[in-house]
Design goal:
heterotrimer; A mainly alpha (228); B mainly alpha (527); C mainly alpha (121); A: mainly alpha; Four Helix Bundle (Hemerythrin (Met), subunit A); 10 helices; 1% strand; extended; B: mainly alpha; globular; disordered C terminus
Chain lengths: 228, 527, 121
């Protein structure tokens, strides 16, 4: 896969956006700003996914990350009012040991990763050319792409990406898929348990009698506060 | 489910696949039933959920045993398109997790009463965490390994925060959560690089690709290429994976979370975290490093020196930091860090001695550590936190039986002969010596000597408990201990286990050898 | 319904394709490595729990990019399946993590990690 022409232009646009937004996520002092920049990064990465031909993942990224996770983040930031927590006008880079450590570390990491990955990528390419590993797959995929139906605008073709993912998800990845369902169940139990107020527990008779006795004045006094 | 099985195209997975995960299915279903029980039962009867959880662990153990006895000649069995592999290794580790889970549930009941947090969700969460661990032991694909690791970790974040009105519990959960999620990210990056090297997430495929990549081959010009170009990528992957896994097993330099999380978490959760979660992380470690990266042993990318250095430093830091601790949970946390170092030695040895050592040590460690935490739990009463070493003062007069048990657990943690801990350490160190003799490299001997010296140091702080209990000048408090039949039973079971393995280890060694040998063979097959 | 009507290359009729250097996989991998590093650095230097957590999400997203890039190179869906699972995990982690944050906030009303000092750092 090599992107050329307009695709390469789009790659640069979204790559630079993602990078800048990621940097600003780290540098922003206000948590709400951070979240907004993170959303920009996520959207740009979703666009990059589309360039890679992973339309379904791109859609899921927008729906799940941007629409779900980040909204949850923003909700919690507003709820606990983190904006006031960051200390006024202090610069973000004010703890020398951490900053030095992280700069050193990040420099090393970036150099190591980029060099290692570049070499490794070339090696992978060489190996696959040598072994003719991908030829068969590529021929089959080219045939498949030829056979794809054309969209109504007559400018593009309708991909089968989603269908392929769906098929594999329920076959090859059926076990992780099932485990993910348990994971989500645990997440539900956990967040409900952690976020429940003492009053809510008292109402459903799920509170220790002695804890209830201790907390009784609290419950009546702050009823309206805790409920919200 | 029958709809799935009779889908009109090809079937998604067969009934045989479901039989392979029968123990996990039983635990999952029972966890859901426990959740319903929590809703239906009033607070005072929440304990029924605990007994139900014990029963369900028993059922899962029975189904695990039947799985083993029905298929023991057919191992390894692959299922779900190669997503999991049931072999002796998986069965052994699953048994360890079930033992740990049962003991944890038993020691939890009284503690949650004292804390005023007796909720049925707790037991459901313990069951789900066990499910995660069990899938971790039998996963054979990076996808299933990752998701089971996360299932386990996520459940533990919730469990650590379970006493949510305690500030210490909150903070411990926050630290554990942040560092756990961070380490998962690093681990995942390593996984993605391995996927890039192999083009597949199956551990067997990855092992094969790496084996091919490192083999010298002849290119089209007739020149020998030695597979060097792929090395940086593999190296990056191995480093990222190791860093993530060192976090999970709390090895130095990624151990900072352990003392805080262990101290702040509810004590039974600490017990489970230090045994079950650690054993599961080791299962993951062994799986990846033997099945997928086993071929790197003896090449220029050998990871053994890295693991050996980390193990040596971990043993040192864990032991020396434990010496100065006053809080007994914190002390046991550092002891658990040093124990992670000992277990890593088995991986460095990489022979059947070492693997037997890992399995037996993890089993004994589960028993003795939950036992030790059980004693600490019994010291927690209303108004008394009881997690200081000095809170044990005078225990020998007040409860001689408990004091004796604590003494045996401590001596076993130290590795005194005739206790289970000694057998585990014997095999771990013996494996190193055997490997050193085989490869004729002296650093294996030095490593073993280093570990033995540190073991002697570790007796200092283990014996401190005994000293406080038996020679403490005044009794810390005269209130009776918080005991319950389940807690007593758990302690006695742990004690019997530790002593039997210590005095008559042969059946355990035979079983471990029989079940773990294919793994050794697999690791050696690459060369 | 499930078919998304996009297929590259863009057949922009009549428009001349610009002459840009071709982008191969290594650019994607380098981009994701840099994003990952930014995430790691963010986790190290940020003090606010929520911001740290957002940087972790950034790390996970960088990893996702690597997976999808390799999947596209190998013409293999496994990488995309992995991304799907990672997204599930990230969502679940967000729910639990924010639950923990709310529990802390109820008890102490501060989210600065430096203030979390009951347990020694």
């Amino acid at each position: 896969m090599t992107l050329t022409g307009w695709e390469a232009v789009f790659f640069w646009v979204f790559a630079v956006t993602a990078l800048m937004a990621a940097l600003l996520t780290v540098l922003a002092r206000n948590a709400v700003h951070s979240a907004m920049f993170l959303i920009s990064t996520l959207v740009s990465v979703a666009a990059l996914f589309i360039l890679l031909g992973a339309e379904f993942v791109a859609g899921a990224q927008i729906l799940v990350y941007v629409g779900g996770v980040m909204v949850l983040f923003l909700f919690v930031i507003m709820l606990v009012n983190v904006g006031a927590e960051e200390r006024g006008k202090e610069a973000i880079f004010n703890r020398t040991p951490q900053v030095v450590a992280s700069l050193l570390f990040s420099g090393l990491l970036v150099i190591g990763l980029v060099i290692g990955i570049n070499q490794g990528w070339r090696a992978i390419q060489e190996r696959d050319e040598r072994d003719n590993r991908l030829v068969e797959v590529q021929v089959r995929r080219a045939q498949e792409e030829q056979a794809l139906p054309v969209a109504a605008t007559n400018t593009m073709k309708i991909t089968r990406d989603t269908e392929r993912i769906g098929n594999s998800l329920y076959r090859y990845a059926s076990l992780p898929f099932e485990i993910a369902s348990i994971l989500l169940l645990v997440a539900i139990i956990g967040s409900v348990m952690l976020a429940r107020t003492i009053k809510q527990e008292a109402v459903t008779d799920d509170l220790d009698p002695e804890v209830l006795k201790e907390a009784a004045p609290l419950i009546t006094e702050r009823a309206d506060l805790t409920e919200g | 489910m029958f709809l799935l099985l009779q889908a009109n195209t090809t079937e998604l997975y067969s009934l045989r696949d479901l039989m392979l995960i029968a123990p996990e299915l039983i635990l999952t279903v029972c966890g859901c039933v426990a959740l319903v029980m929590e809703v239906v039962l009033p607070y005072r009867k929440s304990k029924w959920t605990a007994y139900f959880a014990l029963v369900s662990i028993g059922l899962a153990a029975a189904s695990l045993a039947s799985l083993y006895f029905a298929n023991r000649d057919l191992f390894p069995l692959d299922g779900f398109y190669g997503m999991l592999r049931i072999d002796g290794f998986a069965i052994l580790f699953k048994a360890i997790f079930l033992i740990g889970a049962a003991l944890t549930v038993a020691v939890s009941m009284r503690y949650l009463d004292v804390e005023g947090e007796q909720h049925g969700e707790y037991y459901a969460l313990v069951l789900f965490a066990t499910v995660g661990m069990m899938f971790l032991a039998c996963g054979f694909d990076l996808i299933s390994l990752y998701i089971s690791l996360e299932l386990m970790a996520l459940t533990f974040y919730v469990l650590v925060a379970f006493t949510k009105r305690e500030k210490r519990s909150n903070e411990a959960a926050m630290k554990y959560f942040l560092l756990g999620a961070f380490s998962s990210g690093i681990l995942l990056y390593g996984m993605s690089l391995l996927y890039g090297v192999a083009g597949s997430t199956n551990l067997g495929e990855i092992g094969r690709s790496i084996g091919v990549a490192l083999q010298p081959s002849v290119n089209e010009l007739g020149m020998m290429t030695s597979g060097i170009p792929l090395r940086p990528l593999i190296l990056l992957g191995v480093i990222a994976l190791s860093a993530g896994l060192f976090f999970k097993i709390s090895a130095v330099p990624f151990h900072m979370w352990a003392p805080d999380a262990y101290e702040g978490a509810p004590t039974p959760v600490t017990a489970f975290l230090s045994t079950g979660s650690k054993a599961a992380s080791f299962a993951l470690y062994l799986r990846i490093f033997t099945e997928a990266l086993g071929g790197l042993r003896g090449t220029a990318l050998d990871w053994a020196p890295l693991v050996a250095i980390v193990a040596a430093i971990t043993i040192l830091v864990g032991n020396w930091a434990a010496v100065t601790q006053e809080n007994s949970k914190r002390l046991l946390a550092y002891s658990s860090i040093s124990n992670a170092g000992y277990v890593l030695l088995g991986l460095v040895a990489g022979n059947s001695y070492g693997y037997i050592g890992i399995v037996i040590y993890l089993l004994v460690y589960t028993l003795m550590n939950i036992g030790a935490f059980g004693i600490i739990i019994s010291l927690r009463r209303r108004g008394i936190i009881g997690d200081n070493v000095n809170d044990m003062a005078g225990l020998a007069q007040k409860a001689p039986g408990m004091a004796a048990m604590m003494a045996i657990f401590m001596l076993s943690l130290g590795g005194l002969p005739a206790t289970g801990g000694f057998i585990g350490k014997y095999f771990l160190f013996g494996g190193l010596l055997q490997r050193g003799r085989l490869e004729e490299k002296s650093w294996y001997y030095w490593l073993a000597a280093w570990a033995i010296i540190n073991t002697v140091v570790s007796f200092y702080y283990y014996v401190r408990f005994i000293k406080v209990m038996y020679l403490g000048e005044r009794v810390a408090d005269d209130r009776p201990l918080a005991l319950s039949p389940a807690l007593r039973a758990a302690l006695v079971v742990s004690l019997i286990g530790v002593i039997i393995i210590g005095i008559y280890p042969q059946p355990f060694i035979d079983l471990a050898q029989k079940l773990i040998t294919p793994l050794t063979a697999g690791a050696l097959a690459f060369r | 319904m499930t078919e998304l009507a996009i297929n590259f290359p863009f057949a922009l009729q009549g428009a001349p394709a610009p002459q840009v250097q071709g982008i191969d996989l290594s650019w994607y991998l380098a981009l994701s490595a840099v994003l990952f590093t930014i995430g790691v650095v963010g986790v190290i230097i940020k003090r606010n729990v929520i911001s740290m957590f957002m940087c972790i999400e950034l790390m996970l997203n960088a990893v996702n990019l690597t997976f999808v890039a390799f999947a596209s190179y190998f013409r293999d869906v496994t990488g995309q399946l992995f991304v799907f699972i990672v997204m599930t995990v990230a969502a679940a982690e967000a729910a639990v993590g924010l639950g923990i944050i709310i529990a802390i906030f109820r008890n102490r009303e501060s989210l600065d990690v430096d203030d979390a000092n009951i347990l020694k750092l």
